[in-house]
Specification:
Blueprint: H1 2-29, H2 60-69, E1 95-101, E2 104-109, E3 112-116, E4 150-152, H3 163-173, E5 176-180, H4 184-189, E6 195-198, E7 203-206, E8 210-215, E9 235-240, E10 243-247, H5 256-264, E11 269-273, H6 280-283, H7 290-300, E12 304-308, H8 322-334, E13 341-342, E14 349-352
Helix pairs in contact: 5-7, 7-8
C-alpha cells in the first residue's frame, strides 16, 4: 500500500512540476516583445485601446465581484425555428445573411461566401467538459453549409475563435482565414495554413472583386492566464461593388463607429452585438448594451442593423430576454422602426434584393 501511495505522490509531484514549468514558459514567452510596429494601439508589448484612458485590466476583486452578483437562470434548451434560404437568386449585387448563432453569420454575395467568427462547438471554453454551454443547436449544421471562401475571426476569445470549428472548416473548404495580428500561429498549430493576419485599416482582396477591411473595435484578447492583449482584436468591413456589410465582432461603444463610416462609408448592413453587457461596471468597456448598439447603428449610418451576441451562450449577468426587450425600448426612444434594427431567428436568412440583374 505504501509503495502504491509513493508512486501516486511521485506522479502528482511530476504533474505539478510539469504544470509549473508550462506556466513559467507561458509567463516568460508572453513577456517577450512582439514583432509589430508601435502604434496608437500597440505599445511594443501588448495591444491597447486608444479610446480608453484606463485600459481593460480585470483583477481578482473584479472576478470575485462578478461571482457575488450571480447570474439569472436561463433556459436549458431552446428549439430553433428559423428557415434558411441558401439558394436565393442574388443577381449581380444581392446579399443573403443567415444567422447561425451567437456571432456566426453566413454571408453570401455573388461569387463569394463568408463566415464570421464560426462557433459550432458545444462549449466556448478551453476544455470540452466545462465552461459556457450552448442552450440551442446552431441554426445551420456544418453539413448544410455551401462552399465557404473566407472565414473572418475578430479576436481570440473562445466564443469567437473556436479552434475545433476552424479545423473542420479548413478540412471541408480550405478557405482563406482573415485574423487579427498575433493569431496566425494558433491557427497554424491546428494545421491551418491559409491565414492572413491583419492590422487595423488594412484591406485584403477576396474573390468576386470583394474587399475586406479590418477595422477598429474597443475590446481585449486572451485565451490563458498570461496572454492578455498579446493579440489584436477588431471588426470587419466587407465591400463588393456598391454593396457593403459591417461585422462588429465584439466591443464596447466608442467613437470608432463614426470613424469607420467617415473612412469607408455607411454600410448596407451592420451586424452589432447587443448581449453580454451586465454588470455594467465590468462589461461597459467590453460589450455594448442595446441602447449603445442603437447609437452605433446611427453612428455608422447603416441602412439595416442586425443584433447578435445573445441567445446561445450565457456569458454575463443579463436575463435571456433582457437584450430583446431593451433593444425594443432603445429603438422606440430613438424613433427608429424595428425593420431598421432587427434580430433574426437562428437559421433565418435576410435577403437584400439585387438592384440589377
Amino acid at each position: 500500500m505504501r509503495g502504491v501511495l509513493k508512486v501516486l505522490l511521485r506522479a502528482v509531484g511530476i504533474g505539478l512540476l510539469l504544470l509549473a514549468g508550462l506556466a513559467l514558459f507561458s509567463y516568460v514567452n508572453n513577456r517577450m516583445p512582439l514583432d509589430y510596429p508601435v502604434s496608437d494601439h500597440f505599445n511594443g508589448q501588448r495591444f491597447t485601446n486608444p479610446t480608453l484612458i484606463e485600459q481593460i485590466s480585470p483583477g481578482i476583486s473584479d472576478i470575485v465581484g462578478m461571482i457575488r452578483e450571480g447570474r439569472p437562470e436561463w433556459p436549458t434548451r431552446i428549439e430553433n425555428t428559423g428557415l434558411p434560404q441558401l439558394d436565393a437568386d442574388l443577381g449581380q449585387d444581392g446579399i443573403a445573411v443567415t444567422f447561425v448563432n451567437h456571432v456566426t453569420f453566413l454571408i453570401q454575395m455573388p461569387g463569394v461566401t463568408i463566415l464570421t467568427d464560426p462557433v459550432w462547438s458545444e462549449r466556448t471554453s478551453p476544455v470540452s467538459w466545462f465552461g459556457p454551454r450552448r442552450v440551442r443547436d446552431p441554426g445551420l449544421s456544418l453539413d448544410a453549409l455551401p462552399h465557404v471562401d473566407v472565414v473572418l475571426v475578430s479576436h481570440n476569445h473562445y466564443d469567437h475563435l473556436d479552434l475545433a470549428t476552424l479545423e473542420q472548416l479548413n478540412a471541408r473548404f480550405s478557405p482563406l482565414f482573415l485574423v487579427p495580428l498575433g493569431n496566425r500561429a494558433l491557427l497554424q498549430s491546428a494545421g491551418i495554413s491559409n491565414v492572413k493576419e491583419m492590422d487595423w485599416w488594412e484591406a485584403h482582396d477576396v474573390p468576386s472583386k470583394s474587399r475586406v477591411t479590418f477595422t477598429p473595435a474597443q475590446h481585449s484578447s486572451g485565451r490563458g492566464v498570461f496572454d492578455r492583449d498579446r493579440t489584436l482584436w477588431g471588426s470587419f468591413y466587407i465591400k463588393r461593388d456598391n454593396r457593403s456589410l459591417f461585422f462588429g465582432g465584439d466591443g464596447g461603444y466608442s467613437g470608432q463607429f463614426t470613424e469607420i463610416r467617415e473612412r469607408l462609408g455607411a454600410p448596407d448592413i451592420a451586424l452589432l452585438g447587443i448581449g453580454s453587457y451586465v454588470p455594467r461596471w465590468f462589461m461597459k468597456p467590453l460589450h455594448k448594451n442595446p441602447a449603445e448598439a442603437v447609437q452605433a447603428h446611427l453612428d455608422l449610418g447603416a441602412t439595416l442593423s442586425i443584433g447578435m451576441h445573445m441567445g446561445t451562450f450565457q456569458l454575463a449577468g443579463e436575463t435571456f430576454e433582457q437584450p430583446f426587450a431593451e433593444l425594443a425600448n432603445a429603438l422606440a426612444s430613438e424613433g427608429i422602426e424595428t425593420d431598421r434594427f432587427m434580430i433574426l431567428k437562428e437559421g433565418e436568412t435576410w435577403l437584400v434584393e439585387p438592384q440589377a440583374r
